[in-house]
Amino acid sequence: MQLDILTPDKKVFSGEVSSVSVPGAKGSFEVLNNHAPIISTLEKGMVKLNGKDGKMEFEITGGVIEVLDNKVIVLAESI
Questions:
Q1: Fewest C-beta atoms under 10 Å: which of 38, 45, 52, 65?
Q2: Contact 18, 35 (CB under 8 A)
Q3: Phi, psi at residue 37, to the nearest 5°?
């Protein structure tokens, strides 16, 4: 699935991933391929992803995630 991580200043990450874990407002959750559509607020914490180049982590201060048709967009306040 396609993942884009954006801040107001720049695009932090864009690429294919097999999974992404985010700090949801009501607890962390993981998004996998063919996940149901969802929009959720995010708390301060780690965004962890498994991409073709290995695992990566980004610490965010909050934001929003949208999942739709195997495309995931994380709009982070800051990283």
A1: 52
A2: no
A3: -60, 140
Under the banding of pLDDT at 50, 70 and 90, the label for residue 53 is: confident
Domain 2-76 in CATH 3.30.2350.10? The answer is no
Neighbours of 18 (CB within 10 A): 12
Whether the Cβ atoms of residue 3 and residue 74 lie closer than 8 Å to each other: yes
d(CA 60, CA 32): 20
CA–CA separation, 68 vs 79, rounded Å? 23
* Sole residue written with tokens 């999974």: 19
Model confidence over 1-37: pLDDT tens digits?
Answer: 999 999 999 999 999 999 999 999 899 999 999 999 9
CB distance 70 to 55 below 8 Å = no
Domain ranges (residues) in the chain: 2-76
